Amino acid sequence: MIREFEIVDGKALDVTYGVKENAGYTEEQFDAYWFDQKETIEKTYLYNALALFILVDNVEQVTLKMNSNDKSSVTFQRKELEKKLPHSFKEYQDDAALWQKELVDGVVKSKEKRQDVYNKFPMQN
Asked: How far is Cα 33 from Cα 85, in angstroms, rounded to an integer?
């Protein structure tokens, strides 16, 4: 469901979600997945940002947005997000089980922890 991504200045990654032409799903299916529940977009954006910071060492900023200007977007900063985590991104890179336990189960799936992150990195409309 990623429509496009762009690396800006070698340190920032902009990711845009949307339906690609000739995709195997419709705009309605896309909307049903992303916008059925408010938590879906929050969970997916946060999970993807964490994954990008863990997997791409030199990315300092990740912006996630929809291909429509009236939909939510968010920008995460590596150093500020890492301060909210129990371990460094490097430690999660080396330990997939820790990543799953602390970040996916402990942060992304926890409404309280997720809201703490979004208080620091608010969604923009």
From this structure: 28
Query: Whole-angstrom Cα distance, residue 19 to residue 67?
Result: 9
In a domain, 35, yes or no: yes
Cα 95 to Cα 92: distance, rounded to the nearest angstrom: 5
84 has a pLDDT exceeding 80: yes
Domain interval for residue 49: 2-120
Instruction: Kindly state the average pLDDT of the residues 42-65.
Output: 92
- Cut 0.85: pTM above it: no
Q: Which residues contact 6 (CB under 8 A, 6 or more apart)?
A: 13, 14
Residue 125 lies in a domain: no
User: How many structural domains does the chain have?
Assistant: 1
Q: How far apart are CA 23 and CA 105, in angstroms?
A: 30
**Three-state DSSP state, 14:** strand
